[in-house]
Write a structure and sequence with these properties.
Helix content is 39%, strand content 13%. Strand 3, helix 4 and strand 4 form a beta-alpha-beta unit. It is α/β, with parallel strands linked by helices.
């Protein structure tokens, strides 16, 4: 697939809410949505804390998480389970929302390496695992190799490194998940919401906690997880491997594999969201 035809601005939504008459249903729903969000915050947090304490592969935990996500309005469907190879310890998926890892974890119990500098308590609460990303890529790869060798639970990676709207193209994949000397299991994540509430799951420059509040506000959000056949390293290098998997996932999604990176998204957001000072200031 050509990588030059998709402009970076096409990969992201700039507005959370629709314009014109499409905004009217959201306004009418607003009072109910606020009550629903408050209810979900108090009920969901308690169940979530209980689920975090239980072993990840526990059937009790799985049941609690499914009930919890139902209460929170998060519905997960999956297809392609016949392709799931339990010997594959590295999952790679496109990145669309703050809660993608939660949806995948319901379909396939997994760990998500944390690549952000978060407090340990928040990292635990959000379901991330510290594999030393803050110490550099070499440390991350070393610890990821050790984790996949010692545990039957796979690690989940988002090689794009930043979310997109999932409609037009994928960001260029990072090489590190393909440097673990392991085959990978590609996943496709698609997100749908009720047609009367056309609210974007994530927007350029949006905060993760605001995304979560919108999840709680809306009646439901459907995550569809599609599991693709395992891909093994046949290329000459890890970078070639990452590129071939990016192109494969993009082709299955019917979108483009672009050369834009997560760093390009940061630079684009700075240009797009920067408000120049008023004259004379």
């Amino acid at each position: 697939m050509a990588m030059e035809t998709t402009s970076i601005q096409e990969l992201f939504d700039n507005d959370r809410l629709p314009g014109g008459l499409a905004l009217l249903p959201v306004l009418l729903y607003f009072p109910f949505g606020v009550v629903l969000a408050v209810f979900r915050i108090f009920i969901g947090l308690q169940a979530f804390l209980i689920a975090c304490i239980l072993p990840k592969v526990s059937s009790v935990r799985s049941s609690i998480m499914k009930v919890l996500c139902g209460v929170l309005g998060i519905v997960v469907t999956k297809e392609g389970m016949e392709h799931r190879d339990k010997n594959v310890k590295v999952l790679v998926a496109n990145y669309t929302t703050t809660l993608d890892h939660l949806a995948v974890d319901l379909a396939i119990p997994c760990y998500l390496p944390c690549v952000w500098d978060l407090p340990p308590a928040l990292m635990w609460l959000l379901g991330y695992t510290d594999l030393g990303a803050k110490q550099g890529r070499d440390t991350l790869i070393k610890n990821a190799k050790a984790r996949t060798s010692a545990s039957d639970i796979p690690i989940l990676t988002f090689p794009e490194g930043a979310s997109t709207n999932g409609k037009v193209g994928l960001l260029k994949f990072s090489v590190w998940p393909f440097s673990l000397d392991q085959p990978v299991q590609p996943l496709i994540i698609k997100v749908n919401r009720p047609s009367f509430t056309q609210v974007s799951p994530s927007i350029l420059g949006g905060r993760w906690w605001i995304d979560v509040l919108w999840f709680l506000f809306l009646p439901y959000t459907i995550f569809h997880i599609r599991i693709l056949p395992t891909k093994k390293l046949h290329e000459a290098s890890s970078s070639d491997f990452s590129r071939s998997v990016q192109q494969y996932i993009a082709a299955e999604m019917g979108i483009q594999a672009t050369a834009h990176t997560s760093a390009d998204k940061v630079e684009y957001a700075k240009r797009k969201l920067h408000v120049p000072p008023a004259p004379g200031k």
